[in-house]
């Protein structure tokens, strides 16, 4: 209130606004640090502590007396979450229907970091329009098992691909004057028991597999905030884990931003204070009336601990400084509503990501694309053909301005075809094959030229009923990798009725297709493709778009082939998750132990072919430059993800058969070729030596392998280090 604010304070507030207006630089700035020091100097202990904990469902406290507003956060990775006001009930009258982007696994399947940047720009821009300072994404936990209920939100099984995609996303968000919040740090690789699970892994596994994405977010993308995971790591909760936060994140990596807890992930005041947690956010504490926000672990207790001399006030000052730093970089002091919301420009990005994300997994005798002028009727079968997904999955839900379903997309792109729709199965917990629905689908398939089954996983749909039908959803993991709701029986029956059947898999990752994979004409993976997903899918099916997505995760044939499952370490028992497969996650395991996957990492077909030639290596000190050409040797324009893997010949240490260390997405006209140049630094060859506790390079011969997937190596060349 104005009459309570002194003139000196007012002058100070104006100074802040003036400062913000002429400083949009995101680099650390001495004058910002001075302003922050000045602000901290004016704050009481109680005011400082008020900034360390939630003040409503998605805000942490400000200091109104000094013109410091609350820090406003919002989920989540694929769009700005519906408005909740200060509590947990979604508001019904809010202007919060915006751009629903394809989910994380779809973005990563584009293998296009530039699209990652555009994706981030859209999110940042819409977050700013909605008055948010921090967008709670990207989610980058490694896909250790096909069953993790949140794989759809994440990117990949491979740390290198994650590292490349995450940088674009974060820089895009932060270019809009909004902070990204990379999550969940670290090893939140299963949802079952996520609040109590204690993850154990070797130091090498941590350094080589689980940390690189976060390191790239901090060091390369300069992310402003990071979210601590719910689970424990080596016995201590991640959100206040000394080793992870103080030693690695803030120590080794020099992170200057704020560590935000996952919602309700703080369990101990002293640990949180001393081990690096900067803001405690909480789920329903404070809303259910049991506690008030000052009762949070980082609330009044902290005031008492400082007053009694148990904790130095300088520790609190450091947290406040970090939070203010984030606020200065996140438009927190500006009240302008800038940005766009659900605009054509943003929708175009959603469209482009969806189009580049679809992966063609099988295409028997070039069955696809379908020529619409030669096709009279198509049976569209499957509940996923008409299901909308934007509000599914938990905290990542988005109110989409609109969402094109697969059936609608087909109608939009080829309106002259007759579509015979049959749902084929019901999405209900424990639903099995439904004979009547299968008969109806079979009839539709029989009377149509072609059948398209749109099936796969499903999101928990209703926020309040996750457990009813959740497969790709927060706080739950999939029970197995088999198709739910009797879809295997359905697909087999449809294929018998009409051999011209293609299957479209919707969902957040691998699914067991062994029962019918040999008999279907084509298979596509469409993920959850965002608001334009249905149009993108239809354009691929009818050949307006040539698919260029590649798998960011291995599809095993059966779940038991997946390393964590083969070793019986997923889901964890007794609340202790031992990552006994170590560094052998995803293709690192399948390739090294010679297990045939259903569809390998990096795989995806095209309607054209690409030829790789002339691989040459030039060594200069520790660095190697690889050059090769890729030529479109087919008949249509298309995109290829040229991949580079490093293999060590005659290795004396335990290491993976090959590791992705470079890639480039290129688009080529028929007969056009391009030279791809990939620079490899020392980090492309090193491994983490546990004995020395440092990165090391093994001397000897290395092989550079390039090609269109981890199992389609077209060219190899060797050199020695
Ligand atoms: C999720 C986070 C999310 C937060 C706020 C938690 O349950 O794990 O990813 O950002 O809720 O909704």
Task: Walk me through this protein's architecture.
- By secondary structure, the protein is of the alpha/beta class.
- Helices cover 28% and strands 20% of the residues.
- The chain is built from 20 helices and 25 strands.
- The strands form six sheets. Strands 1-2-3-4-6-9 form a six-stranded mixed sheet. A six-stranded mixed sheet has the order 10-15-14-13-11-12, with helices on both faces. A four-stranded mixed sheet has the order 8-7-5-16, with no helix packed on it.
- The N and C termini lie far apart (68 Å).
- The chain binds beta-D-glucopyranose (BGC).
- Residues 75-76, 136, 183, 262-263, 395 line the site of beta-D-glucopyranose.
Task: Give a quick set of tags describing it.
single chain; 721 residues; alpha/beta; six-stranded mixed beta sheet; 20 helices; 25 strands; disordered N terminus; binds beta-D-glucopyranose
At a glance:
The protein has 20 helices and 25 strands.
Can you lay out the helices and strands and say which pair or pack?
Layout: H1 7-21, H2 30-42, H3 45-50, E1 59-60, E2 71-74, H4 104-110, H5 113-129, E3 134-135, H6 159-174, E4 179-185, E5 198-200, H7 203-210, H8 212-220, E6 225-228, E7 232-233, E8 236-237, H9 242-252, E9 258-261, H10 269-274, H11 300-307, H12 313-329, H13 344-357, E10 359-363, E11 377-381, H14 406-413, E12 418-422, H15 435-446, E13 450-456, H16 466-469, H17 487-497, E14 501-506, E15 522-525, H18 533-541, H19 563-566, E16 576-578, H20 587-592, E17 610-620, E18 623-632, E19 638-648, E20 659-668, E21 673-680, E22 686-689, E23 694-697, E24 701-709, E25 712-720
Parallel strand pairs: 2-3, 3-4, 4-6, 5-7, 5-16, 6-9, 11-12, 11-13, 13-14, 14-15
Antiparallel strand pairs: 1-2, 7-8, 10-15, 17-18, 18-21, 19-20, 19-24, 22-23, 24-25
Helix pairs in contact: 2-12, 4-13, 5-6, 5-13, 6-8, 13-18, 14-18, 15-17
Bound molecules: beta-D-glucopyranose.
């Amino acid at each position: 209130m104005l009459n309570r604010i002194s003139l000196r304070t007012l002058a100070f507030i104006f100074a802040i606004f003036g400062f913000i207006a002429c400083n949009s630089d995101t680099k650390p700035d001495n004058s910002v640090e001075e302003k922050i020091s000045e602000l901290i100097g004016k704050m009481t202990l109680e005011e400082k502590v008020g900034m360390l904990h939630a003040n409503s469902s998605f805000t942490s406290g400000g200091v109104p007396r000094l013109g410091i507003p609350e820090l406003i956060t919002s989920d989540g990775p694929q769009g700005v979450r519906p408005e909740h006001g200060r509590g947990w009930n979604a508001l019904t009258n809010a202007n919060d229907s915006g751009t629903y982007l394809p989910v994380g696994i779809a973005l990563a399947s584009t293998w296009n970091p530039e699209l990652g940047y555009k994706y981030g720009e859209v999110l940042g821009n819409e977050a700013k329009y909605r008055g948010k300072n921090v967008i709670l994404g990207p989610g980058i936990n490694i896909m250790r098992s096909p069953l993790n209920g949140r794989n759809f939100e994440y990117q990949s099984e491979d740390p290198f691909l994650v590292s490349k995609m995450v940088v674009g996303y974060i820089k895009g968000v932060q270019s809009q004057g909004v902070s990204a919040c990379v999550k969940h740090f670290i090893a939140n690789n299963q949802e079952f028991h996520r609040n109590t699970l204690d993850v154990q892994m070797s130091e090498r596994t941590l350094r080589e597999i689980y940390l690189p994405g976060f390191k790239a977010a901090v060091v390369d993308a300069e992310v402003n905030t990071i979210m601590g995971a719910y689970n424990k790591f080596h016995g201590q909760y991640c959100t206040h884990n000394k080793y992870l936060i103080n030693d690695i994140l803030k120590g080794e990596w020099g992170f200057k931003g704020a560590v935000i807890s996952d919602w309700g992930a703080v369990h101990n005041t002293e640990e949180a204070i001393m081990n690096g947690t900067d803001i405690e956010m909480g789920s329903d504490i404070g809303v259910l009336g049991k506690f008030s926000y000052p009762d949070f672990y980082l609330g009044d207790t902290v005031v008492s601990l400082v007053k009694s001399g148990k904790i130095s006030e300088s520790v609190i000052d450091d947290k406040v400084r970090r939070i203010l730093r984030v606020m200065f970089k996140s438009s927190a002091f500006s009240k302008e509503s800038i940005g766009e919301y659900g605009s054509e420009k943003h929708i175009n990005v959603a469209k482009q990501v969806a189009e580049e994300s679809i992966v063609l997994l099988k295409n028997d005798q070039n069955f696809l694309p379908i020529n619409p002028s030669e096709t009279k009727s198509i049976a569209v079968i499957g509940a996923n053909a008409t299901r909308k997904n934007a509000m599914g999955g938990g905290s990542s839900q988005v109110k989409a301005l609109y969402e094109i379903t697969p059936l609608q997309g087909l109608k939009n792109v080829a309106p002259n075809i007759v579509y015979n729709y049959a749902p084929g199965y019901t999405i209900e917990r424990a639903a099995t094959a439904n004979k009547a629905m299968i008969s109806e689908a079979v009839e539709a398939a029989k009377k149509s030229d072609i059948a398209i089954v749109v099936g796969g996983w499903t999101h928990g749909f209703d926020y309040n009923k996750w457990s009813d039908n959740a497969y790709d959803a927060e706080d739950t993991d999939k029970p197995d990798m088999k198709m739910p709701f009797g879809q295997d029986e359905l697909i087999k029956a449809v294929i018998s009725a009409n051999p011209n059947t293609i299957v479209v898999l919707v969902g957040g990752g691998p699914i067991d297709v062994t029962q019918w994979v040999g008999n279907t004409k084509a298979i596509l993976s469409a993920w959850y493709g965002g608001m334009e997903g249905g149009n993108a899918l239809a354009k691929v099916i009818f050949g307006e778009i040539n698919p260029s997505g590649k798998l960011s995760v291995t599809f095993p044939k059966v779940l038991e082939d997946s390393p964590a499952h083969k070793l019986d370490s997923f889901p964890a028992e007794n609340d202790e998750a031992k990552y006994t497969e170590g560094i052998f996650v995803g293709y690192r395991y399948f390739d090294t132990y010679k297990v045939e996957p259903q569809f390998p990492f990096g795989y995806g077909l095209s309607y054209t072919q690409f030829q790789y030639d002339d691989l040459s290596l030039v060594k200069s000190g520790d660095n190697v430059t690889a050059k090769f050409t890729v030529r479109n040797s087919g008949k249509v324009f298309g995109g290829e993800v040229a991949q580079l893997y490093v293999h060590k010949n005659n290795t004396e240490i335990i290491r993976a058969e090959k590791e992705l260390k470079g890639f480039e997405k290129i688009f080529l006209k028929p007969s056009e070729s391009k030279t791809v140049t990939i620079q490899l630094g020392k980090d492309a060859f090193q491994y983490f030596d546990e004995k020395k506790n440092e990165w090391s390079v093994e001397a000897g011969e290395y092989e550079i392998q390039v090609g269109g997937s981890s199992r389609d190596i077209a060219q190899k060349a060797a050199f020695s280090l």
